[in-house]
TrEMBL record:
Signal peptide: none annotated. It comes from Tanticharoenia sakaeratensis NBRC 103193. Residues 60-136 form the Lipoyl-binding domain. The lineage of its organism: Bacteria, Pseudomonadati, Pseudomonadota, Alphaproteobacteria, Acetobacterales. InterPro entries: AcCoA_biotinCC, Biotin_BS, Biotin_Carboxyl_Carrier/Decarb, Biotin_lipoyl, Single_hybrid_motif. One of its GO terms (biological process) is fatty acid biosynthetic process. Pfam families: Biotin_lipoyl. One of its GO terms (cellular component) is acetyl-CoA carboxylase complex. This is Biotin carboxyl carrier protein of acetyl-CoA carboxylase.
Length: 136
């Protein structure tokens, strides 16, 4: 993969397959092999975290985006949101949608808890791995 970077002039390349992802970036001495977002969902702990992290990507209750797309908090413009801040959610409950390539994908709560913060608004573009919400 390093040779491909050199030949093409790219600064980074990433390959994802099933439960693993390999990313090589030029200019750093770092090669990362990590599970995909679905497999990397943190397990809820018995004691909630005392103070929320200032960086939502590092928060243990962060729900990361599994894809690039546009987020929608309601099933249609005239409907109420799937969930609201402060609401209890069950594991597997739909909390929002992401439209990617004309397909609406349900984003489900990875664990039961309280939705403490929604970090995106309807119509916002989101990137892979970007935190969408925090469930504690």
């Amino acid at each position: 993969m390093a040779d491909i970077l050199t030949e093409t002039g790219l600064t980074e390349i990433e390959i994802a397959e099933k439960d693993s992802r390999i990313r090589v970036a030029r200019g750093t001495a770092q090669t990362v092999v990590a599970p995909t977002a679905a497999a990397a969902t943190p397990i809820a702990t018995a004691a909630p975290q005392a103070a929320p992290s200032a960086d939502p990507t590092k928060h243990p209750g962060a729900v990361p985006s599994p894809m690039v797309g546009v987020v929608y908090l309601t099933p249609d413009p005239s409907a109420p949101p799937f969930v609201t801040e402060g609401q209890s959610v069950a594991a597997g409950q739909t909390i929002m949608l992401i439209e990617a390539m004309k397909t609406f994908n349900q984003i489900k709560a990875p664990r039961a808890g309280t939705l403490t913060k929604v970090l995106v608004a309807s119509g916002d573009p989101v990137e892979f791995g970007e935190p969408l919400a925090i469930i504690e």
